[in-house]
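ok trying this again, last paste got cut off
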Amino acid sequence: MNFDALTIVYILEIIVGGLLVGVGVHFVPVGGAPAAMAQATGIGTGTVQLAAGSGLTGLLAAGLMMSVTDNIWPILASGAVGAMIMMDATMMTGGWIYAYAVGAPFASAKVNYDPITGYSQPPYVAPGTVGQGIPTVCYVSGTIGAFMGGLGGAMIYYPLMMTNHNPSLSALFAIGIFLVNAVLASWNIQGTIEGFHDPKFKRWPKAFRSCLVATLILALVAVTITGGA
C-alpha cells in the first residue's frame, strides 16, 4: 500500500494510542496476590489482565460507537468512558469486599497521608503489610488510568478501521498492539503499584520509550497488513 499523508496520520494515531496505554497502566492500582490476601493496596489481579480488561472494554465501546458514526470524537469518548466504567466498577466492588467481607480498612503504607483526603495512613496499616483496601487516591488514579487506556484502545482501533473497514481484523490487530504495550508497562512496574502516588510511578518514562519503539513497529506492520487485506 502507498504511505500517503492520511496513512501517516493513522500510524501516528496508533502510536499515540499505544503510548496512552503504556503510561496509563502506571495509574491503575494493582496489588496482585498480596492484594487478594488483603496485604497490599490495589486490585488482586495482574497488571496486564487489569489493563487489558479496561482497554478492551474501551475498545468494544469504541467499536459500538463506530457502528453509528465515523466521527472520531464520540468514538474516542466512548472508549474512554467505557473503560472508566469498567475500572470504577471493579475498584468499587473490590472495596466492598475488603470492607464488608474481609473487614480490612482502606489504608496505604506507601504514603503517610492520603494525597486527596489528607487522612493519616500508618495507624490503620497492619504490621507486616503494605496497606489494605483501595484508598481514595488509588480510586482516582485508577479512573485516570482507565481513561487513558480506553482512549488509547479506541485510538488504536479507529485508524485500523478507517484503513480496512473490517471490524474483526481491526479488533484483532488492536488487541495485539494493546497487549504488547500493557506487557511492557507491566515489566516496567515489576509487581504491584498503587497509582500516581506510588514511588514506582516515576518509572513511567522508561515504559514510554519502550512503548514508543514497539508501537512504531507494530503500527507500520498493522497498517501495511490490514490496509492491503
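PB: full thing came through this time. DSSP finds seven helices and two strands in the chain.
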